[in-house]
Amino acid sequence: MLTIRRADFADPQLEAFLTAHLVDLEPTSPPESRHALELDALRAPGVRLWTAYDGESLVGTAALAPVDAGHEELKSMRTDPDQRGRGIGARLLDHALDDARSRGVARISLETGSADYFAPARALYRRRGFAECEPFASYIEDVHSTFMTLDLVPGR
């Protein structure tokens, strides 16, 4: 049974899970092209981090971080590699988008890798309505990055 809840930063599984995320990303692009947040950055004011558990095991994370008024960035989307293909990422993404809508957020953007490793993530985002866009916030054009956005306000 999958449960999604706000992250408990005291949970020792969380630090290990997020560290594994950073390790997974190391071979995918050079350091200047890796934009995953470390644990301390996920504690910043305004950042909302959710965790997915299968029983007592942490199997996924997703976060939203403020960009500017009405605009947030999807961060720290990760499913345990041994659990991929079960819909955990989709459930976490839907949870984050529902949360954003409930708070009146108008737009969600994200940066993900452009390598084949990230193809499943990009496909998930496209299925949820995200479209490729120009770099946003402080990002710059980067061959290793794909930028995507979703307008949460219909007809805007």
Structure report:
The model has no long low-confidence stretch (mean pLDDT 93). By secondary structure, the chain is an alpha+beta fold. The termini are far apart. A seven-stranded mixed beta sheet has the order 1-2-3-4-5-7-6, with helices on both faces. The chain has helices at 12-25, 39-42, 88-102, 119-127; strands at 2-6, 48-54, 57-68, 71-79, 107-113, 131-132, 145-151.
Which key terms come to mind for this protein?
alpha+beta; 156 residues; 7 strands; single chain; seven-stranded mixed beta sheet
Strands ordered across the widest β-sheet: 1-2-3-4-5-7-6
**Intertermini distance:** 37 Å
Shape: globular
Strand content: 25-35%
Proportion in helices:
25-40%
| Biggest sheet details | 7 strands, mixed
Mean pLDDT: 93
Low-confidence stretches: none
- What's the gyration radius in Å? 15 Å
**Which assembly state applies to the chains in this document?**
single chain
Which H/E pattern describes the elements?
Answer: EHHEEEHEHEE
Structural class: alpha+beta
Tell me the total number of β-strands.
7
Tally of helical runs: 4
Write a concise synopsis of the structure shown.
With 156 residues, this protein is α+β, with helices and mostly antiparallel strands.
How are the SSEs ordered, and which strands pair?
Layout (H helix, E strand, L loop, with lengths): L1 E5 L5 H14 L13 H4 L5 E7 L2 E12 L2 E9 L8 H15 L4 E7 L5 H9 L3 E2 L12 E7 L5
Parallel strand pairs: 4-5
Antiparallel strand pairs: 1-2, 2-3, 3-4, 5-7, 6-7
